[in-house]
Amino acid sequence: MKRHLDSLREQARKEIASAENLQQLRDVEVRYLGKKGELTKILRGMGDLAPEERPEAGRLANETREHLEGLLASKEESLGREAVRQRLAKEQLDVTLPGTRPQRGAEHPIYKVLADIRRIFTSMGFDIASGPEVETEFYNFEALNIPADHPARDMQQSFYLCESILLRTQTSPVQIRAMQRRAPKVPLRILAPGRCFRRDHVDATHGFMFHQIEGLVIDYGITMQDLKGTLETFVRELYGEDTEIRLRPSYFPFTEPSAEADMTCMVCHGSGCRVCKDEGFIELGGAGMVHPRVLEIGGYDPEKVSGFAFGWGVERMAQFKYDINDLRLFFNNDARFLRQFR
User: Fold this and answer.
1) For the whole prediction, is pTM greater than 0.85?
2) What are the boundaries of each domain within the chain?
3) What's CA 187's distance to the chain center, in Å?
4) Residues 259-294: pLDDT tens digits?
């Protein structure tokens, strides 16, 4: 028995030493220590020995198992270190090479213009106000002097979520909410930027979603002169000192008197061209004195205070500022277009 175990131990030692990888080492382990291995066969044959020989044979067999297990563990550790060394040598990186630079993003042109607008109006003492994009008919229409049977509702082309809830078609509802929170205190000066939604056809100058700024001032003795002066200060700061404002009579349910605000054409600088149809001015949006009915709904006494309001599309202002002829470019996510505004 002892000679047999010594021979097995020596043979296993040689095979363990000659194993070149972990798989070969596993094969050696199974061949000698597995369920059908050489040492296991010897242990199973101990029943054929004389009773007095079994203790000594068991001791020698266990010593052989422990010895082989030690050799296997040592060899496995050695092969593991070698495998790691070879992998590191194969996969090593040249840390002196320059890294891959990520593409640098940029602020979207719409939000660049919005940031400029906020900066200009806050410098004039305006507070920035916001409100929900999902509105009730009361705030979106009725509080702005547009009752249910008013034809101006048809012009809004609204997205209704249910009978009386809709996506706001303008940022004017923010004015009503601000007035109700503040009334009857004056002065009230707010700018309400945000997104609006209308069922409009999509082309170079229209979209179903657009950004708008809404301005509101309420105080004692506010006149159209204050409105024009404010708007003129704004456009000169945004577009240049030679920019002028022109007010044309118009109609809006929530202002009286109402006006369309035009500014000097950015292309011809007032001399007349194809873009401005030879008028020298380009339309910006609506403006006017706050209607007395709207003041009352907001909690102010129209006999004591007055105010002006205006609402302009941000996309149009961005088109003027960056000389962009198609509004759809703002929302196509074309990196070639957006990369210009880094």
Assistant:
1) no
2) 2-91, 109-341
3) 36
4) 999 999 887 888 888 778 888 898 889 999 999 999
